Amino acid sequence: MASVDNGQVGSGVDMRRRIGFFGLLAFVVVCAGGCNSPSEASGPVAIETVGGSLQTATVTRGSLTPVLALDSAVASSVQYEITSPADGRLVRGPEGLTVVDVLGKAHQIPLHELDTDVNYLVPDGAPVSRGLPIARSVYAGFVMGSDVGGADLLRMQSPPESARAQISGGAAPFPCKLLDMVPTASAEPSLRRLYCDVPREQPAIGGLTGVLALRFPTVESALLLPIEAVGGTVANGSVRIQEGTTSSLRSVRLGPSDGIHVVISEGLQEGDVVLLPSPSLLDE
Predict the structure, then answer these.
(1) What is the DSSP letter of 54?
(2) What is the SS3 assignment for 5-52?
(3) Are 83 and 112 contained in the same domain?
(4) What range defines the domain where residue 102 resides?
(5) With a cut of 50, which residues of the chain have pLDDT below it?
(6) CA-CA distances (angstroms) from residue 234 to 127, 152, 225, 248?
(7) Which secondary structure element, helix H or strand E, spans residue 279, and what is its range?
(8) How far is CA 4 from its chain centroid?
């Protein structure tokens, strides 16, 4: 299953449907069709108004909380990898696993209540590396399972602060806990599996589909634009910047998105005015 944020921005129609479906969370958008790749800045062209009025957006400064939404499905008794949270030395104890880093700080990895058939991949006292598997376990309960690949895997290098899920046709969204912060290897080399536990009080049946949303740390004092103003990929984009009665194509670097706004890392300044919709639609 593909994630809702597939590394493209520029059309919010599909995302607004998911926002209404999911409730409290805003998600990252996808292109309804193929987004144009970012190009070099072009010369000025005359601005055409839509319905007699110019549609623009202004670059503003503010905070943004990135959220990554993934298509998901209910599963049970899944095997997953337990990874090391730091570089250091593994210590196995009755309360679970601990990694002691080079500074002597202990990073605890408590096993889940429903973990069974734990298979340790490295011996007690062995050196371990951050993000690499140190054990495998079977989780004897329901989970929301999602495929993660491409740019989404890069986002997972920064651990999410929290996760929420919703089962299609079910009750309201519910908080869930990732079995491990690092997605587990799957049969498909280009994809990995991410699992989030389903609380016991939450009705669930294996095979039901839904959405898993990961909330990442807030970006402060960032330059922001509505996603409708930007076309491109997860890192590189383009906008039509207004210059009097003309506009020109401007390449920009993109940061994270919350499904409503996207961070502009390079290429624009606060107060710049760009045309709506994005070049992906304007240049067709």
Answers:
(1) -
(2) CCCEECCCHHHHHHHHHHCCCCCCCCCCCCCCCCCCCCCCEECCCECC
(3) yes
(4) 72-145+174-209
(5) 1-51, 282, 284
(6) 35, 9, 14, 22
(7) helix 279-282
(8) 9
